[in-house]
């Protein structure tokens, strides 16, 4: 807790973005806790910095809403913080006082100069190495003692450190989306990382009640190191399938196999839509220079980007159209990159089902597995049936599962992850998989 006193003056860059807004909420909650527990001698400040005033207005509303939800769930704890103020006694008064006190510590601004007085700079701008380097340099010139915690999901921290001559004052602090809900936090240090910065980062992560996994400073780290290669595999597999059918059918079939036969919360193409096709492409582009022996790109992904069909979420959290079109959260159409239009799933489903062939006699789903008290037994029995069913769907699922395991083992072999347990934790916690890629179900 002593190390967290350094949170007295902090800044979040890109605070109103998808990741930045969640990070801002988490830090505001920490400031509230520290202030009301009397851990600060001076007034604490959280600079929420973003270029868009409109986005900052949205962030302000979002933050107030999240603080209210927290206060409503933790009213008794917060009451204790206000025990020396008898005029604040009723639950409603306590909640209002807490939200007001925390909001008063947050400065919503579009001025980068606000970060010049901060010891800690949390960065959540877009995945652009040159832009990060430019901004870090600007701040460092005016704030020599600043520590940087970057939310980059793929760019090696050492390359940022070297370009800015940061000399150990930058650390990878990769939250998962959405940061307020996701428990996983990947921490990436360089060979030069300041030990005090690293210790602080660990203590803060524990205070936020995150599951902390350390990754080696290799492009993509653990989470995207696996997910991106999983995605590339699916893109190539779909391209092969499309030679016998067509691209929309191939995408639909691969997504269905990934979700239903690998028992995942969503199919791989739906996941790329959720992450954002543009983000997926940028991450792959960031990784490619560090892995010249691999082909971390696919022409059909590039085509989606060129057509501005990029997925992601609307400001209200609903899914934007990408590989699929969504209506009330449900997949209804699949995009044909050659005809440049969406095809209704109902038009292709029957043909796809015939092509995929037999499925296991007793299907299970992700929700069912996650609720089960006998998860391992349920999965073992199901995958035994998958392996023993000679159909296109089951054969593709088996090959996919085997490939996923190989990707994971290579991450350990290359020392990106310390162990297969770490990889399994990342995929189960960060991606909500029912089981890790290294398991007893595949070979």
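^ structure tokens above, recovered residues below v
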């Amino acid at each position: 807790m002593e190390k967290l006193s350094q949170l007295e003056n902090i800044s979040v860059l890109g605070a109103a973005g998808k990741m930045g807004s969640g990070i801002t909420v988490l830090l505001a909650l920490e400031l509230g806790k520290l202030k009301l527990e009397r851990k600060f001698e001076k007034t604490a400040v959280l600079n929420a910095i973003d270029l868009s005033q409109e986005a900052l207005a949205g962030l302000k509303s979002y933050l107030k809403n999240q603080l209210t939800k927290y206060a409503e769930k933790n009213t008794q704890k917060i009451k204790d913080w206000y025990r020396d103020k008898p005029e604040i006694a009723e639950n409603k008064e306590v909640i209002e006082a807490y939200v007001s006190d925390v909001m008063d510590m947050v400065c919503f601004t579009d001025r980068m100069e606000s970060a010049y007085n901060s010891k800690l700079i949390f960065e959540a701008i877009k995945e652009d190495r040159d832009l990060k380097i430019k901004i870090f340099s600007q701040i460092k010139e005016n704030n020599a003692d600043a520590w940087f915690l970057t939310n980059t999901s793929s760019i090696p921290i050492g390359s940022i450190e070297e370009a800015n001559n940061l000399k150990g004052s930058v650390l990878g602090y990769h939250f998962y989306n959405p940061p307020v809900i996701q428990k996983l936090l990947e921490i990436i240090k360089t060979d030069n990382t300041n030990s005090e910065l690293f210790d602080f980062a660990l203590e803060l992560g524990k205070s936020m009640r995150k599951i902390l996994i350390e990754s080696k400073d290799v492009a993509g780290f653990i989470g995207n190191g696996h997910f991106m290669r999983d995605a590339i595999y699916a893109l190539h597999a779909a391209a092969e399938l499309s030679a016998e059918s067509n691209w929309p059918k191939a995408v639909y079939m691969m997504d269905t196999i990934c979700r239903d036969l690998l028992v995942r919360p969503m199919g791989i193409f739906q996941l790329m839509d959720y992450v954002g096709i543009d983000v997926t492409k940028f991450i792959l582009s960031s990784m490619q220079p560090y892995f010249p022996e691999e082909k971390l790109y696919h022409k059909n992904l590039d085509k989606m980007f060129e057509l501005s069909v990029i997925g992601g979420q609307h400001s209200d959290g609903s899914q934007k159209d990408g590989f699929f079109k969504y209506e009330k959260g449900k997949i209804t159409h699949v995009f044909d990159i050659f005809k440049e239009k969406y095809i209704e799933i109902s038009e292709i489903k029957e043909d796809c089902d015939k092509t995929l062939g037999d499925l296991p006699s007793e299907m299970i789903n992700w929700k069912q597995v996650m609720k089960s008290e006998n998860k391992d037994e349920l999965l073992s029995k199901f995958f035994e049936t998958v392996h023993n069913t000679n159909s296109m769907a089951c054969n593709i699922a088996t090959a996919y599962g085997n490939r996923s395991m190989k990707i994971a083992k290579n991450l350990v072999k290359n020392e990106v992850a310390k162990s297969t347990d770490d990889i399994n934790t990342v995929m189960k916690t960060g991606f909500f998989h029912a089981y890790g890629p290294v398991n007893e179900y595949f070979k």
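The chain has 17 helices and eleven strands.
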